[in-house]
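#structure-requests
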Amino acid sequence: MAHFIYEYSANLPSETLDLRGLMAKMHHVAADTGVFPLSGMRSRAQRYEEFYLADGDPTKGFINLSMRVGGGREHSIRQQCGELLFNTLTEHLKPLLDSMPLAISFEMRELDEHVKYNRKNY
């Protein structure tokens, strides 16, 4: 299981952000690690019209990626994968970083023991 949850400010130009391209890229990079199965990956995004960053300058934008993963992987493996994924994220966002003030954040959260149900037909 690897779920990617993107939150971002509405002032990011959609054509430069290329969210679908970013999602596809992150799925492929995560799958290529051999740690996360592609069939268990999900991505979703929430665009925020209302936001306030730092000093309130409306030209500043943000993107936050939260990744939830199932338990059972060693911390060092998650850390290596996290660094690779964060580098992929920042590389994809470089055109935005070069054109506007932008805050990028990423966290990978391993789910503790929990009751979980899921079903898929693919």
